[in-house]
Structure formats: structure tokens, C-alpha cells
Amino acid sequence: MSDRSNENGSRSRSGGNGGGNQRGGNQRGGNRGGNQRGGNPRGGNQRGGGSVAGGQRQRRPRISGARIVAYDVLRDVVERDAYANLALAARIREARLDGRDAALATELAAGTLRALGRLDRVIELAANRPADEIDPRTLNVLRIGAHQLLSMRTAAHAAVHESVELQRLVGNERAAGFVNGVLREIGRSTNEEWDARIADTAKGPDDALAVRTSHPAWVVRALRDALRAEGRDAELEALLEADNASPRVNLALLEGAGITAEELALVEPDAIDAVGPSVIGLELTGGDPGRAIAGAEERAGIPSGLLRVQDQGSQLAALALVRATPVAEGERWLDLCAGPGGKTAILAAEAAVESATVRANEVSDHRADLVRDSVTGVDAVAPGVVKVVSHDGRDHEAFGCGRDTHELYDRILVDAPCSGLGALRRRPEARWRKQPSDLPELTALQSELIDAAVAHLKPGGVLAYVTCSPHLAETRVGVDRALKRHSGLRELDAKRAVRAASRLGESLELPGDHLSAQLWPHRHDTDAMFVSLLSRE
Ligand SMILES: C[S@@+](CC[C@H](N)C(=O)[O-])C[C@H]1O[C@@H](n2cnc3c(N)ncnc32)[C@H](O)[C@@H]1O
């Protein structure tokens, strides 16, 4: 079936950026904002050539622009550590794809990246060789082709034909037969049959589940542990499946908009639904979010910047801090890790009606600018409510303290840097970049940020410790350790506060004995946000 001797060549038939000039390709797109820290998802090696979309080639490919963009994005992410969403936006712009092709490119690239673990195992079984023995460019072509065969409704002959064409364009032309053979082999079995073969060849049940649902095995174990802490480990498969579905775009309608979420849904019945757990949350029914927001602002007379894209779990986390205890006039609030400012915007809008003020701190200057952008809408309707600064959250300056002054706050949000295991459905490549070895450094930083916040919390004040990770080391263990370190600290009922911020009220399902609240994609259709509320006696 396969032609192994053709596999490792890296020349391009065209001599252009299909592979000839390995470093001279157009690198503009994917490297903008590329995350240079992490390892490559699934460890692709670095031999691949430059951009297809931006390079020169000798003949026009007989393949769609969407597939070329998907291939370029895959390479940007796998080989250059780019963020998929940034690479996609840049490549789509560069290739000038229309809306339909942009949606196809997004599904091809994001879907392939999300499913990488399972696709690679299927390719290994079909090719009868380890994925790391396949030329990286050919492997990426196979991944995109296999994703179309297994998860999209692409006709098998079209998926195989276009993949062979793509291989001719981007890789070793002599491996086109190999691509053809492997993809035909993949297309001969159903998904269920492939899952059975995955199970038969797995190292054990956890490996089978991890590969079938395309998660690293350590992530599967961490998610199971977190569900077990609520007595809900039976929900593991539902959670892993939810991680593999692209979420609908959610919106937050901030205080000051002059209209409720339910009323706005009546004004925009074709574009917006008032569904989801957050009392200020909405869901877009489809289409371009920017256009939907602009249309809603105009028709409902909403001041610009008060209707924003935001996951409803994040909305609940920010609102829980405000709903934890009654707000007194003139309160001072602090958002310690504010970038890019989604929760700051909610806090600032709430502060404006509560006669409170917000100081928003973010360690990165660039992300502090994003916080400034995110609060322009609130600032326009309530000038001076929010101030943005940039310091390390462990330093006194973050809290506005001088050499002889010590500032205290009524409410502090520590939305801590974390592994992000709760937002895997949003970032298709993220699960392959995280390592268990990332955790000790993160949990140490989380503890230090909590300690700094506790030192600047007024007696009777409330600290919300929030992560977009359900990993117990970053959630319950971190909170329990903080309670041990600070004898004057006690935990408040975060479940009650989250329910108070939810349109579902008491029926918002938050099982388990802990006072903290854990949200889940499969159960609440939110990111897996963790919220603990702490108060100083
Ligand atoms: C989970 S994100 C916050 C998300 C934000 N609250 C929002 O809703 O848009 C964590 C943020 O903490 C910032 N950060 C990391 N280390 C920090 C530190 N030592 N002090 C302050 N902020 C830090 C990161 O740059 C990142 O922007």
C-alpha cells in the first residue's frame, strides 16, 4: 500500500515554497502572537517548507484555498508554535477567503488540531508505521485528509483526491501514492471500527480512552480526578466529548446597557438567544460576531462596548465576586491578573452602578493595553470607574502601595494564570502543549498571588480565586493550602454566589461537598471555571 522509499524526501516538485525554499517562505501569518514557549503539538519535526498560501508555485493547485489555508495553519501551529486562532485569522486574511471558505478552513484546521491524537493513531494503524517516521509535511496532509474522512461530511473520493493534490503541492510528489493508499485504507473502515482497532492496540483502558477522545492521557486522569471530587467521575466521557465540540459564541451584556439580556433577544430574535447560565449571558445563533454585535447595538441603542464576546463561565466567576456579599457604597475593588480584561469589563460595569471603583492590574504591558481596550465602553459611560496599571501582582505597586502606605481592598479578583485545562474546546492546540511539568511553577505562582491578595484584603472583604482549569492542584489543593497558611481566612459559599449570578438560580447544578464552585463544558456549556470565595476575618 505504501511507498516507504518516497517518504523522507523533502524536495518540492515546483522548487517554490511547496517545499523547495525551506526557510524562505512567507512566515507572516502564523507567527504573529505565536506562543514560543510550548513544545510542538505531537512533536512534529522542523523540516517543513514555507507557506503555501504566500509562496510562489509553478502550477495552480487543483485544490481549494480553504485546504491550503488549513495546511498552512497546521504547520504554523505544529512547527512554529503559533496559536491556532491567530494563525487562522492571519492566513484567512492573507488568502482572502470568503465567509464560506473561511468557515471550511477553520473546521479543517481547528478540527484536525483538536483530533490530532486520534488521527495520528489511525494513520499509524493504516500506514503500519509510527507517525514520527512519516515526513512531517506528508503527515500534516494525511491528518487533514483523515479528519475529512472521519469527522466531516466530505465525500471520500474528494477528500482523497484533494489530499493527493495537496501532497503534490507541498511535499514530496513521489509520496502522493503513499497518501492515496493510506487515506483509502482509512476510508475503508467506519469510525466505530477504527475505535475498536484503537482499543485493541492501546496500552490499557486509559490509553484507549485518551486516544479515542484525542486527549493526552495525563489530562484524562486530571479531569477524572476533578470530577471524582464531585462524585461525578461517570461524566468523564461526556466531558471529553464536550472538549471536542466547537462552542457557540457567547456574549455578555454589561450593566449600563439599558436593556436586559432577555429583552435584547426579543429585539434580535434571528441572531441572539438569551440562553446559558449567566444572568447577563447570551448566545449567538451563528454568523459573524462583530456584525451581530454592531447590529444589536444599533437596533437596541446599546452604548458601544457593553455587549461583548465572553464565555458565560467567565461571566459567572466575575459576577460571583460582586454577589458574594452586599456591596457598600464607595467600595474599592482590585482585579489582580486582569489581562485581557474580560472580567475587568464586567467588574467595572457593576462597580459603576454600585458606586465602587476598580483597579485593574496586569503584569504584561501588552495585555494591560488589552485591558484598557476592553473597558473603553464602560469608561465612556462611567468615566474614572476603572484604572489600569501594569505590575507583577506579587509586588506592592500592583496594589497602589507606596513606600509608607499600605492599600486595602474590599473585593479582589485573582483570576490566576493556570494550565487552561478548562478551556480546551476553545483552543484546539492547547491540550498538546500542556505538560504535567508545567504545574509546579504555576501552582507556586498561584499561591504567591493569593498571599499577596490576602495581605491587601480588608477585614470582611472578599477574595475570589478563579482558574480556567479544573485540575485539583490548581483548584481545591491551592485553596486548602491557602486556608492553612492564613489562619484568619475562611471560605464563603461560592456555589450560592454563582447561583445568585445565574439565570438558572438554585437549579444550576453544582454537586459536591465543597464550598467552591466548579463549572463544566458538558454540564453548563461553559469553560471549566473554578471559583472559590475567601474572606478575611
Ligand atoms: C487567566 S488570565 C486572566 C484573564 C482575565 N481575568 C480575563 O477575564 O480576561 C491570567 C493573567 O494573569 C497574568 N499574569 C501572569 N503572571 C502574573 C503576575 N505575576 N502578576 C499579575 N498578572 C500576572 C497573565 O499575563 C494573564 O493575563
SSE topology sketch:
Elements: H1 28-31, H2 65-80, H3 84-95, H4 99-114, H5 116-127, H6 136-151, H7 156-170, H8 176-187, H9 191-201, H10 205-212, H11 217-228, H12 236-243, E1 250-253, H13 261-267, E2 272-273, E3 281-284, H14 289-300, E4 307-309, H15 312-323, E5 332-335, H16 342-354, E6 357-361, H17 365-374, H18 376-381, E7 386-389, E8 409-415, H19 430-433, H20 439-455, E9 457-467, H21 476-485, E10 489-492, H22 494-500, E11 517-518, H23 521-524, E12 530-536
Parallel strand pairs: 5-6, 5-8, 6-7, 8-9
Antiparallel strand pairs: 1-3, 1-4, 2-3, 9-12, 10-12, 11-12
The chain binds S-adenosylmethionine.
Binding site for S-adenosyl-L-methionine: 337-343, 362, 392, 415
EC number: 2.1.1.-
Region (Disordered): 1-60
What does this structure look like?
The chain is an alpha/beta fold and 537 residues long. The chain contains 23 helices and 12 strands. Strand 2 (272-273) and strand 3 (281-284) form a beta hairpin. The radius of gyration is 25 Å and the shape is globular. It starts with 27 loop residues before the first helix and ends with a strand. Mean pLDDT is 90; it is low at 1-50. The structure holds S-adenosylmethionine.
